[in-house]
Amino acid sequence: MEILNEFIEVAANPAAYAAKIKASGRPVIGYYCSYTPEEIIHAAGMHPMRLFGSKGDTGIADRHLQAYCCSLVRGALAESLSGGLDYLSGTVFPHTCDSIQRLSDIWRLNTSHGFFADVVLPVKLNTESARRYMADVLDKFRKELESYFHLTISDEDLNASIRTYNAIRGSLKEIWELKSHNPGLLSGSDLSSIVRASMVMDREALKDDLRSLLEELGEGKPSGEAKGKRLMLVGNVCDHPDVYTLIERSGGQVVWDDLCTGSRYFEGMMEEGSDPISSIADRLFERQVCPAKHKSPTARGEHITAKAREHGVQGVVFLYLKFCDPHSFDYPYLREYLERAGIPSMLLEIEDRLPPEGQLLTRIETFTHML
Ligand code: SF4
Ligand code: SF4
Fold first, then answer.
1. Nearest ligand 1 atom, CA 327
2. CATH class of 2-156
3. Domain extents for the chain?
4. Beta carbons within 10 angstroms of residue 346's beta carbon
5. How far is ligand 2, taken at its centre, from the CA of residue 196, in Å?
């Protein structure tokens, strides 16, 4: 499938894609968290770009960071300091985990990518005042972009952007659901590449590419084989397509996830044609929370259990970047919550580079054989 290969190429080398966008004269605005209001950046005529951090040597970042920072934060700073992000015209930091907040301070003082914004979203997402506060913060961000780049972001621009993003998210969800119903249709690593490339590609072209891909996939024959135990990945980000391949080689298949590089990116639609800032705020407010936000003590457990049941999941793999405080704090309660629901789970902690293949295979195989 030619179109699928395009997604795989972009996911494998996002910087090359971003450099082309920059060469076309469009500012590229980078971000590290799925709470970033991409729609506002897109409505300003700019290109929102998810950054995943360098996977090379991160020593250049060490003098700025404590040893216990996650590899995403370390790789992010290393990539910037070593010139790997010179195509950026700005960066946006939503207020989320402590590591990202501290990275934001260090970034502001030590890097020079032009526009910089801290988007201080509320942490508790369970009151009407928080919902209004969220909208006010987004409106402030819109004004900051307008002022820095000397432009106007109209409500019409925002509504057009909302339509584009609804189309993109709707298609991504359809693709994921096709895969869940017919796991043989796409490999896990291809699916992961599609979602990650969608955070990088020109969003107007992406909207059409995803529809074309869906049409091609819709013509695919059901594999009829339910090979591998049905697993759900739960965690922060997964920028390692090899993880999916290793799971498949170990007798499993990923049929749903709760990841920032997965369903947390595409779940939730925005109302079209009303006050656009409120619509964007409502989605961020109502979307399934990550552990850096709070809705209720059991919100994540309920959500993950419901999704596991909906997708016939036999086991959950918690996939965390090491030293990720918010997810590590959530883990004991989530594991117990799933246990009570009769859903077994295992924990895999990884870094920017994966542990030896044999070690991972043995651990996942032991889990899938037990299911
Ligand atoms: S886990 Fe939460 S804080 Fe971390 S990148 Fe995802 S949305 Fe942002
Ligand atoms: S992996 Fe965890 S600690 Fe690192 S940036 Fe994401 S939420 Fe924060």
1. 1
2. alpha beta
3. 2-156
4. 18
5. 17
Over residues 286-296, mean pLDDT: 92
Neighbours of 355 (CB within 10 A): 12
Residue closest via CA to ligand 1's atom 5 equals 33
Ligand 2, residues 51, 68, 73: which to mutate, most atoms within 8 A of Cβ? 73
Task: Confirm if 45 and 151 have CB atoms less than 8 A apart.
Answer: yes
Ranges of beta strands (E only) in the chain are 28-31, 47-50, 88-94, 115-119, 229-235, 252-258, 315-321, 345-350
3-state SS, 73-105, equals HHHHHHHHHCCCCCCEEEEEEECCCHHHHHHHH
* Cα(185)–Cα(223) distance, integer angstroms: 7
**CA 2–ligand 1 middle distance (angstroms):** 32
Tell me: the pLDDT tens digits for 172-196?
999 999 999 999 999 999 999 999 9
Per residue in 66-87, pLDDT (tens digit) is 888 898 999 999 999 999 999 9
Q: Determine the Cα–Cα distance for residues 133 and 123; give it in Å rounded to an integer.
A: 11
Q: What are phi and psi of 339, to 5 degrees?
A: -55, -45
Residue 34 Cβ < 6 Å to ligand 1: yes
What is the spatial distance between Cα 308 and Cα 121, in angstroms, rounded to a whole number?
29
- Ligand 2 contact, 104 CB (< 6 A): no
| Of 350, 292, 296, residue with least CA distance to 121 | 292
Q: Is 170 helix (H, G, I), strand (E, B) or coil?
A: helix
Return the exposure string of 217-248: e unless at least 16 CB atoms fall within 10 Å of the residue's CB, then b.
Answer: beeeeeeeeeebbbbbbbbbbbbbbebbebbb
**Closest C-alpha among 28, 84, 14, 29 to residue 56:** 84
Rounded Cα–Cα distance for residues 301 and 306 (Å): 8
Among 96-100, 229-233, 269-273, where is mean pLDDT lowest?
96-100
Q: Give the tens place of pLDDT for each residue, 108-122.
A: 999 999 999 999 999
> Which residue among 77, 236, 319 is best mutated to probe the pocket of ligand 2, counting the most ligand atoms within 8 A of its Cβ?
236
| CA pair distance 7, 2, nearest whole angstrom | 9
Which residues lie across from 113 on neighbouring strands? none
Mean pLDDT of 288-313: 95
Task: Report residue 328 as tokens.
Answer: 């590590």
Residue whose Cα lies nearest atom 6 of ligand 2: it is: 236
